[in-house]
Structures are given as structure tokens and as C-alpha cells.
Amino acid sequence: MSRDDEWAPRPRTRRTALGLAGGAAAALLLPARRAAAQRVFPADGTVAFVARRQGNVVGAHRIDFARREGRFSVRSDIVLDVRGAAGLPDRYVHHAEEIWRDGWLDAVVSDTDDDGRRYRVRAEREDGIFTGTVNGAAFTVSGYIIPSSLWHRDTPNSQILFDTVDGRVKVVRGELVGREDVPVGGVRVTARHFALYGGIARDLWYDADSALVRIALIGRDGVPVVFEKQ
Fold first, then answer.
1. Is residue 11 included in any domain, yes or no?
2. N or C of the chain: less Cβ packing under 10 Å?
3. What is d(CA 129, CA 185) in angstroms, rounded to the nearest whole number?
């Protein structure tokens, strides 16, 4: 669906953040004390986006936030259908749940169908190490990580993201483009516009409270798809 890098999982392969990004990866990990701050987590509730391509509605993106029993849960659901006039398939369905505990990402479960290519990720933190599988292939990630679900306020400042679609650590770079007025629920709000480059390419807009209000990506056919918060 996107211009992210692609990866075919190999059975019995184990990968770590340090192995993927080199010895310097330790310097890329965010300090744990930043994760511990409660204000980084949105209030309980639902955020809904509508996806448009060339003015046409082509899908939806919903994020549900909830606190229960000392855990913070983030549920993401995305459905896109951007098949062109030529009838070429381009359908994307993604469901994921993140569990955060004490400011750390504690578990991820996801199921993604990207034009028939299926990814199933199951991961949890054990003894300080994030361990899991994607389509049966094992992986481990060391240190503090932010997932690729984009809602987290520190996403554009991160240098690595854990991709909840394919279970791989992606090296990224965020750049502040500027402040722009964008439509949100029928009104216009001022938001910071960031461009995210590297393993995950997106344009992201966050409002004054660091809440995600707009997402843009380039489809496989080169046409932008824009998610606007309702």
C-alpha cells in the first residue's frame, strides 16, 4: 500500500535493533524517562480518520485508546481500497492492538492483509526484551521502542520505529516542515507538519496538544492518500 521497504520473513531468523541498525543503534533509543511521562498518552476515547484519494473516499482509520488495570491499550483499524480504473488490486486491511505498561510498549498483536500478502505479528516484552514472531519467524528488539502506529507524539523525533505490520525495526528520520492550518472535524486547526523519511515514509500533522490530526502517504501508483481526522 505504501512506499515502505518490503521484507520477506525467513523462518528461524532472529533480529535485534542493534543488529539491524549497527552498534550506534543504542544511541537512537529514546530515554526511558520520556516514556514514563503520563502526558504522552492520549485520553481514553476514539479518534476516526477518513481516507481520500483524488477527492474520493477510499477508506477509514480508527484508533481506540483505553486504560484498564494499569495498562494503556491502543487499538488501530485501517481499511483501504484504492483500486484504480484499470481494476488493479490495491486493498489494505490492518488490525493491531498495542499494550503499554509503565510507559513501555509491553505487547503487540497485529493482522495485516496487504493485497493478499498476509502478516501476523505476536510480540511481548519479557525480561526487558521485546520478543515475538511474524508469520512464525522469531525476532527480538532491545531497548525502548515506539511503534509505527503514528499516534505517539515522539514519532517524528524517533530514529527507529517498530513496524506493527511486518515486525521489523525501521530506521527513520523526521523533519519539521512547518506549521499549517488543516481541516479537523469541520474546522481548521494549526498543526505542526512533519515529513518522515526512511523505512516508513509519511507526512504527519500534530495539533497543539501533540495529537495526530492528519496523515498522508504515496500509494503504489504515485497518487497521494490523505487521512483527515473527523
1. no
2. C
3. 40
Q: Which of 90, 75, 98 shows the shortest CA–CA distance to 217?
A: 90
Q: Which position has the grid cell 483501504?
A: 80
Cβ count within 10 A of residue 16: 16
Strands 117-126 and 160-162: unpaired
CA distance 230 to 223: 22
The mean of the pLDDT values for the chain is 85
Task: Give per-residue pLDDT as tens, 79-107.
Answer: 999 876 555 568 999 999 999 999 999 99
Q: How many domains does the chain have?
A: 1
Domain that holds residue 158: 17-229
DSSP string, the chain: --SS------TT----HHHHH-GGGGGGSPPHHHHH-GGGSPPSEEEEEEEEETTEEEEEEEEEEEEETTEEEEEEEEEEE---TT----EEEEEEEEEEETTEEEEEEEEEEETTEEEEEEEEEETTEEEEEETTEEEEEES---BTTS-STTGGG-SEEE-TTT--EEEEEEEEEEEEEEEETTEEEEEEEEEEEESS-EEEEE-TT--EEEEEEE-TTS-EEEEEE-
- Classify residue 188: in a domain, yes or no: yes
Give the other-Cβ count within 10 Å of 169's Cβ: 25
Residues 176-195 pLDDT 10s = 999 999 999 999 999 999 99
Q: Tell me whether residue 4 is in a domain.
A: no
The answer to whether residue 154 is domain-embedded is yes
The 3-state secondary structure of 38-57 reads HHHCCCCEEEEEEEEECCEE
